[in-house]
What does this fold into?
Amino acid sequence: MAETTFDRRDITHIVWDWNGTLLDDNHANLAAVNAVCARFGRAPVEMEYWRSVFRRPLIPCYEDLLGRAFEDGEWDEAEELYDRSYLEHLPRCTLADGVPDVLHDWVGGGGTQSLLSMASHEHLVPLIAERGLDAHFTRVDGRRFATVKDSKAEHLVHHLDRQGVDPAKVVLIGDIDDDARAAHEAGANALLVASGLMARERLEATGATVVDSPVAAVAALRGV
Ligand SMILES: [Mg+2]
It folds into this structure.
């Protein structure tokens, strides 16, 4: 991947990822993955393993996990199982350490921020409201349409277009390599947190700067 470092002083707007970034939901994700494993006769996996293999697009990732291709209808079934299990565990997921204080800090320093997730739009919007986070963001978008590549890239382009934000002034803060890919394809910048669903070495392989947490990401942007 191309060089993705940037001058922090050029950044005026953060696009936050949700799952694995602002929301500490790794264990809910793992439980949901293991619900899929159980249905398809695969032994449960551990967090470290899942962080070493999880990737987008999701279908080939899960086919590798399960050791065979999906037959007709099976991917839909896997998604339904995943969602049901995830939703059962979601109420016990907390915001990442330092959230929402770090959102206040960024706006207090004169920046703007928005939220873009690959969770379905209908799922995401009420969740952000329930957690009382709406007011921090200029815009909240989940996955509003399907794409062939199953990447955040096209969604990010729309998300920035709708706000009239210059991508060069934007940093996407996320927890997987697709967040860096999306930022690169949209002409924006990326900062990755190693607290989410992907192992640090895999994040570093993107060429993006990797930090420990959302708090560390904003500290890096503010030069403190
Ligand atoms: Mg994420």
Observations:
- The radius of gyration is 17 Å.
- The chain has two domains: 8-24+94-222, 26-92.
- The mean pLDDT is 95.
